[in-house]
Amino acid sequence: MKYKVPFNDLFAQYVSLKDAIDTAMEAVIQQSAFVRGPFVKTFEEEFSKMFDANHCISCANGTDALYISMKALGVKDGDEVIAPAHSWISTTETITQAGGNVVFCDTEKDTYTIDPSEIEKKITEATVGIIPVHLFGQSADMDSILEIAHRHNIWVLEDCAQAHLAEYKGRKVGTFGDAASFSFYPGKNLGAMGDAGAILTNNTSLAEKMQRFARHGGLFKGEHLVEGVNSRLDGIQAAILSVKLKELRRWTSRRQEVAAHYSKRLIGLSTITTPVISDDRSHVFHLYVIRHKDRDGLKSFLADNGVETVVNYPVSLPLLPAYGHLEHSAEDFLVASSNQSQILSLPIYPEITDQQVDYVCDLIAAFANTQ
After folding, report:
1. CA angle, corner 54, sides to 51 and 59, nearest 5?
2. CA pair distance 42, 12, nearest whole angstrom
3. Which of 79, 109, 196, 297 would staple 192 via disulfide (CB 3.0–4.6 Å)?
4. Which residues of the chain have pLDDT under 50?
5. Residues 165-196: pLDDT tens digits?
6. For position 219, what pLDDT does the model report?
7. Distance between CA 153 and CA 128 in Å, rounded?
8. In angstroms, how far is CA 81 from the centroid of its own chain?
9. What is the pLDDT of residues 112-154, one digit of tens each?
């Protein structure tokens, strides 16, 4: 039987929560609480409680969460910030926007996260911080990263855009660094129905700086102690996120079940590399990423048979035209450069059926057996 398998199905998610989401949106409209207000405050409290964090600063999107964090951390012209070579560009474009210089670091082959053994080589007198990205839903090696940061007296900003509820040694990511940024882009494990983001921190002084900068430089209307930006979470998105937050643990468990199903079916195929979960880390599988030497051929074969896949990300950041001025080559980042040509993200979302997963696996097996 032939199936059509989308990469994600946000409408199916909406249908499963339709009454609760519609009621939440109606409540916001009735109160005209469109920008910040009680629904935003409630979500901030709920989200910080889930992570046992002191402060949650909501904002317009995950990219702003990174930028606002770095402005509050005091990034200035000439400062260097270390970031992984393989990530979405938000991680590094915000370093530049905040006034700093991007310093790329290679990644671990199997976890796709920043390689601590390479970080030390990148530190100079100008280094002020490290941004580990918990890519695809698995934690970076936080013990090693924090040890390096503490020894060099530099800050750590966790990029948790793809790792809601992921854990490192039993502790949720987003609770290790000086601050942590989150994205609630619709396709994320916890997604709004539009753009949205947030920052977590336990540092009260830092939280106030973030709140002030994100609200035109003041904590209340008419106060402008500094020049800031306009980055606010709107009430409708906050209300929707509060509804979905109640489902996040269940959705995470289902993602992990789907991932285990994929791995059980695919692990015996010699040409396919399935995700590796490192010791002492959990994986929340925002993306289920395999590797295959003929990635593009496999992607086309799956598409021809109704399966939608995505390449996250086809070009490592240092090799993008945006960073051409740094004059990097693939040899500078051997792991990231190798992975970029082989990785393929398979459909994964809580509503996907076991039959759809089996269909995808059958196709991959059929393709692999021709290699």
Report:
1. 80
2. 26
3. 196
4. none
5. 999 999 999 999 999 999 999 999 999 999 99
6. 77
7. 8
8. 18
9. 999 999 999 999 999 999 999 999 999 999 999 999 999 999 9
Contact present, 129 and 98 (Cβ < 8 Å): no
Q: Residue 133 and residue 147: Cα distance in Å, rounded?
A: 17
Residue with the two structure tokens 């074969």? 301
* pLDDT at position 303: 98
Q: Which residues, 6+ apart, have CB-to-CB distance to 112 below 8 Å?
A: 86, 135, 136, 138, 289, 339, 343
Q: Which residue segments constitute the domains of the chain, with CATH numbers given?
A: 10-245 (3.40.640.10), 248-368 (3.90.1150.10)
Joined together, the tokens standing for residue 348 give: 């994964």
Place of tokens 């959705």: 251
Q: How far is it, in rounded angstroms, from Cα 110 to Cα 300?
A: 24
Contacts 24+ apart (CB under 8 A), 255-260: 255/137, 255/189, 255/284, 255/285, 255/286, 255/348, 255/349, 255/350, 256/283, 256/284, 256/285, 258/285, 258/288, 258/348, 258/349, 258/350, 258/352, 258/357, 259/283, 259/285, 259/288, 259/348
pTM, two decimal places: 0.96
pLDDT at 57: 98
Q: Quick one: 322 exposed, middle or buried, by C-beta within 10 A (0-12, 13-18, 19+)?
A: middle
Backbone angle region of 240, left / alpha / beta, with phi > 0 → left and psi within -120 to 50 → alpha: alpha
The token pair that represents 58 in the structure block: 């909501």
Q: Measured between alpha carbons, how far is 84 from 291 in angstroms, rounded to an integer?
A: 19
